[in-house]
Amino acid sequence: QNERLIATDLNTEGPYALTRNPLYLGNLLITLGVCAIAHDAILTALVACLFATQYRAIIAAEEAFLREKFGARFDEYASRVPRFWPRALTFPASTRPWSPRRALRKEHNPAAAWVALALLLLGWDARVERRSLAPYAIALATVGAVWLAVKAWKHSWHRGGFAADMKRRLRETAR
Predict the structure, then answer these.
(1) By three-state DSSP, how is residue 16 classified?
(2) Residues 21-63 pLDDT 10s
(3) For residues 69-82, average pLDDT
(4) Of 97, 115, 141, which residue is a domain's last?
(5) Which residues of 83-111 are buried (b: 16+ CB within 10 A; e: fewer)?
(6) Do 130 and 70 belong together in one domain?
(7) How far apart are CA 123 and CA 117, in angstroms?
(8) Contact in structure between 21 and 59 (CB atoms under 8 Å)
(9) Judgement on whether residues 155 and 90 belong to the same structural domain of the protein
(10) Across the chain, which distance is largest between two alpha carbons, in Å?
(11) What pLDDT, in 10s, does the model give residues 157-169?
């Protein structure tokens, strides 16, 4: 989400013990799931090719950054953990517990976007089949309201106030 790569430590636990790119693998599976909702094999193949092209470059840049920053430690990790597709789904123990609060704070934008896209595609199917769009409109409005609530919570928790954060962002973009 940022153009600048940052890593304070090499993450090798949890899903990172199965694949070096669990978030990208998740994005691919979600994207292909949304394509399945669209019922279009050509779209699915096209999206898979575009995804592979885009993420291949991103992964290469990130690996170069991690190799430069962590050296032999990254090389050892890369030698035992596959780049993308996990070898097995046996989860090694993690020293850090999973935090739903942190996950919500970090991943609310893509989660809302994927759910909204799925609802729009399902709504399109309903429209084509002349079914009511009301359930999809209500669900989409609910997703939007939840997203705004999480956004407000995140900014009030993270920076000391939603209004203060918005003012700061406006000042930064005015520069």
Answers:
(1) helix
(2) 999 999 899 889 888 888 888 989 999 999 999 999 999 999 9
(3) 95
(4) 97
(5) eeeeeeeeeeeeeeeeeeeeeeeeebeeb
(6) no
(7) 10
(8) yes
(9) no
(10) 60
(11) 555 566 676 677 6
| Same domain flag for 147 and 175 | yes
**Residue whose tokens read 């789904």:** 89
| CA-based nearest residue to 32, from 17, 44, 43, 46 | 44
Asked if 27 contacts 114 with a C-beta cutoff of 8 angstroms, the reply is no
Rounded Cα distance between 40 and 49, Å, is 14
Q: Which of 49, 3, 27 is nearest to 117 (CA)?
A: 27
CA pair distance 27, 103, nearest whole angstrom = 15
Total-model pTM: 0.63
Confidence check: pLDDT of 1 > 60: no
DSSP 77-145: HHHHS-SSS-S--PPPP-SS---HHHHHHHHHHHHHHHHHHHHHHHHHHHHHTT--SHHHHHHHHHHHH
- 17 closest CA partner among 67, 80, 69, 66: 80
Residue range of the domain that includes 123: 99-175
More confident residue, 72 or 102: 72
pLDDT of 111 strictly over 80: yes
Coil, strand or helix: which one is 114? Answer: helix
